[in-house]
Amino acid sequence: MNTLNDKAARLLLRRMFDAAIAAAQPALCVPPALPAAPNGRLIVIGAGKASAEMARAVERNWQGPLTGLVVTRYGYAVPCERIEIVEAAHPVPDAAGLQAARRILERVQGLNADDTVLCLISGGGSSLLPLPLEGITLEDKQQVNHALLQSGASISEMNCVRRHLSAIKGGRLAAACHPAKVVTLLISDVPGDDTRDIASGPTVADASTCEDALAIIRRYAIDLPERVLEVLRSGRGESIKPGDPRLAGNEIRIIATPQMALEAAARVAAEHGVTAHILGDSIEGEARDVGKVMAGIALQAARRSQPFTAPCVLLSGGETTVTVRGTGRGGRNVEFLLSSAIALRGEADVYGLAGDTDGVDGQEEIAGACVTPDTLARAFAAGLRPADSLDNNDGHGFFQALGDSVVTGPTLTNVNDFRALLIARSED
């Protein structure tokens, strides 16, 4: 029994993706997490792709006075009346982010114990708060970010290095707010929801060390300027450690997570008579390898009704990596999908969609793409060689040529990657 035709399968996948994004909207998840009114001032600061929309949600739901400043990605600003919104570059930082980080630190100087700092943090904050330690330049930080993004290191490993080169991350921002109370609202975009890794943890104590960062640099043979390495070797880059009295009494509240987004997508599937199986919200690894594995599971379900019976959809989240070897336009979600498509070999009634919930896969203003049973056939007819596109890390070029890109525009949130393989019918 064919439960879904091509059009219906595509539509269902897009509805699931949209539901995942909607579940993490700040307007929904910020208001219940707001702190009690302080005896003193409320100062709002923040960084990330969702920070501007988070700031707007604060303004709309806060009854008393407040002031603030947050920095978000270019194109992600929204109108606010009392909180200043600044835009800067992501994923490679720029001077606007550097200046915004300095100004945020200035905003929290001279506070007292009656004041509260409300810190709004979401994915992307690492690049948007690029204030380096003394002896390191913005150009150095740009080189570090570029090298990390090309290396194949996991997001946790990348953020470990970033924390130890920053004057604001690794708990340093919270320490600068002392003696004011700090309440941090986090929208998680990292595997396992490790608070240290969300925007590299500007308000979170960090037990990792400079030596840990050096080990990561050695592991991936990352070529960095000597003055950057000296900061790590000397120990000058040590972050704020657990137990530091300046962070005592501070509160961390995770208000949206990849798991919540996947569960929202699963509910949409159920409404359409399709059973959803969440394989994990923190799956990491090379995107092309994860694509092969998920395709293998989908094939077993389609051909053997194992481990799941169709109609069903396999959902996963987390953040895969791409070790860049080619000259293509990249994107970890489209690399995952292209690898999946090659492994599926045109299997009937198997469809897929993968995208970044922030609307940007890699450095492209494209969220992701979709695959259908005829993806490979259409590609060959258009003169495309899927394996060559994969080898060249050119998933975006491949899917855009087929008209299968998924474009959302700025979603104003970020709970990492969304991956779905839909098995519309089994062969039994």
TrEMBL record:
Cellular component aspect of the GO annotation: cytoplasm
Originating organism: Duganella aquatilis
Any one GO molecular function term: glycerate kinase activity
Keyword Metal-binding: no
Highest taxon in the source lineage: Bacteria
Domain MOFRL-associated: 13-232
Record-linked PANTHER family: GLYCERATE KINASE
Keywords for the protein's UniProt record, in alphabetical order: ATP-binding, Kinase, Nucleotide-binding, Transferase
UniProt xrefs under Gene3D superfamilies: Glycerate kinase, MOFRL-like N-terminal domain, MOFRL domain
Domain MOFRL: 312-417
Protein's UniProt name: DUF4147 domain-containing protein
